[in-house]
Specification:
This is YneQ. This protein has 101 residues and is of the alpha+beta class. Helix content is 38%, strand content 19%. A 4-stranded antiparallel beta sheet has the order 1-2-3-4.
Amino acid sequence: MAFGIRRQELQQWKETVSRGEIAYITHFWLDPRFPGITTVTKVGCSDITKLAAWCTANELPAKYIHHRDAYPHFDLIGPKQIEILKREQLWDQIERFRLLD
């Protein structure tokens, strides 16, 4: 279940993904398979080759790319999520979702 994002943010993410660019969107998320995890960052790109290369560069298994509709993405959770958001300087997402608390 996803919550905590605005329609405009989601639309902007979808547009960026559709252009074949790497896009990040973080939202609150609850899934019983991942106890203690309350957020996920979706890293999307319609260019699967580019998204797979992004996974490899970040030491993440590209086999977990979700090939969904027009918005393929990789779900970042836990410490790797924070590491990458910091590196990408996505401070607004880090602060908004209190990922450093």
